[in-house]
Specification:
Layout: E1 2-7, H1 10-19, E2 27-32, E3 42-43, H2 52-62, E4 65-70, H3 73-77, H4 80-86, E5 90-92, H5 96-103, H6 105-114, E6 122-125, H7 128-137, E7 143-147, E8 156-159, H8 162-173, E9 184-188, E10 193-202, E11 206-214, E12 217-219, E13 223-226, E14 231-234, H9 241-259, E15 267-277, E16 280-287, H10 294-298, H11 306-315, E17 330-338, E18 352-353, H12 358-362, E19 364-368, E20 371-373, E21 379-381, E22 385-393, H13 396-408, E23 410-411, E24 415-416, H14 423-429
Parallel strand pairs: 1-2, 1-4, 2-3, 4-5
Antiparallel strand pairs: 6-9, 7-8, 7-9, 10-11, 10-15, 11-14, 12-13, 14-17, 15-16, 17-22, 17-24, 18-23, 19-22, 20-21
């Protein structure tokens, strides 16, 4: 079957790498893709917003694409899956109604309240004056202030006190986030371990993947501003067997009931952002697609045919497919970024890599996130997050040793990365 991946970041590169291993994939396309994907997919110069959505559908029809895998949330919110369905093309990704679980944090909260899914207490505001009055009346304690809409992972601010909360509300609603910041969400700030639990969904069935922990802040020790993610590792020991049972009973079971309610037809990946608190797991967010950089750590651990699972999800037959199998190993992804990210940064820096030993090359991968080709065909930086370097090992320590060895082999001017990925896991084990 011909398959089209929509998107051009590290997540899409990891998905393309895994899909290319399936014997059932005849041709693999990526729109627009990135230079790193050229070894496994044919790049198509199509955009993922505006008129590009219609052109993606036209391309899928013309090339007899049987399955479209949508990486980023934007095209899903714009209804790409709905348009593909109208042309009889299967899509791994929900329609616009299901995509509201990510495109509107307020809608997601209302959804969780309706279906009795545990989540932090919250209030929403559409006027800055109203938000300021409410925040002024709250205790001087930490709260989380979020833009309601899609803000590329930058619309969430953890405010340590009332003054920071007021400043966060002004920052989000001052227009810099456009429509995404027209409304804000203020929720209680929970204390605990944050875990990403991604799940395969086909509208009726929900099968969780391995738990992953992301490092969202730019600085080591989780300091500085939030980013799209600076590194991940899987699995996570904090997600114990007892925790898994609690999540199954209080979150996954109600979610399955909600998906079967007919409110929308959800087929694809449902990302559940969890906070493991002393009072039990709480859902802090939904994403309606694979996480980035969670995907880069998960794909090397998946021991099943990704195409078979995705096709079963899109066709509504996940129950009939073989359950996903996972390697009994650990994986770590370290994001190499441009200095200045998530603020201003330079692009066009030449990327070079020294040869590595055969063993290291076999158990590590470089997934491109923000790269391009210069006039000579050389690789250059083209984004804030540039590369997602990933390694796998029998133990977490082995995976960490390999991933940082691979990182050390790569160079570009003004590179930056965190050297403490998985530090919480190492602390728990010490």
């Amino acid at each position: 079957m011909n398959v089209l991946i929509v998107g051009g970041g590290g997540r899409e590169h990891a998905l393309a790498w895994k899909l290319s291993q399936s014997r059932k994939v005849t041709a693999l396309y990526a729109a627009p893709g990135n230079p790193g994907m050229e070894d496994v997919a044919c790049r198509v110069p199509l955009q993922t917003s505006g008129e590009g959505i219609d052109k993606i559908v036209e391309f899928a029809v013309k090339e007899s694409v049987g399955l479209v895998v949508v990486g980023p949330e934007g095209p899903l919110a714009l209804g790409l899956a709905d348009r593909l369905a109208g042309r009889g093309i299967l899509c791994f990704g929900p329609g616009a109604k299901g995509a509201r679980l990510e495109s509107s944090k307020i809608y997601a909260k209302e959804f969780m309240d309706r279906h009795h899914i545990p989540t932090p207490a919250w209030r929403s505001f559409s006027a800055l004056d109203e938000a300021k009055r409410c925040l002024s009346d709250l205790p001087d304690a930490p709260v989380v202030v979020k833009a309601d809409g899609l803000a590329q992972g930058k619309g969430v601010i953890v405010a340590k006190n009332r003054a920071e909360a007021l400043s966060a509300a002004e920052k989000i609603m001052d227009g810099r986030f456009g429509e995404a910041g027209r409304k804000i969400l203020v929720e209680e700030c929970l204390v605990g371990e944050e875990i990403s639990l991604l799940s395969f969904a086909d509208g009726k069935t929900l099968i969780p993947m391995l738990p992953v922990q992301d490092h969202k802040q730019i600085g080591e020790g989780d300091t500085g501003p939030n980013t799209g993610g600076m590194g991940t590792y899987a699995p996570v020991s904090a997600f114990s067997a007892e925790t898994a049972r609690t999540v199954e009973e209080t979150i996954l079971r109600p979610l399955r009931t909600a998906l079967r309610s007919g409110e929308f037809d959800y087929r694809g990946c449902l990302y559940i952002g969890l906070m493991l608190t002393s009072e039990g797991p709480r859902v802090i967010e939904f994403n309606v697609r694979f996480g980035d950089p969670e995907t880069q750590a998960l794909m090397p651990l998946l021991d099943s045919d990704l195409f078979e699972i995705m096709h079963a999800c899109a066709a509504g037959r996940l129950e009939e497919a073989r359950p996903p199998e996972w390697r009994d190993e650990s994986a770590v992804c370290v994001v190499m970024a441009s200095q200045g990210y998530p603020g201003e940064y330079s692009v066009g820096r030449v990327i070079t890599e020294r040869p590595v030993a055969e063993e290291l090359a076999r158990d590590s991968w470089v997934f491109h996130a923000g790269t391009s080709r210069d006039a000579r065909g050389g690789l250059t930086t083209a984004g804030g997050r540039v590369l997602g370097v990933t390694a796998r090992g029998k133990t977490l320590e082995t995976a960490l040793k390999r991933v940082y060895a691979r990182v050390d082999s790569i160079d570009f001017r003004e590179k930056t990365y965190r050297r403490d990925i998985a530090y919480r896991e190492l602390t728990r084990r010490s």
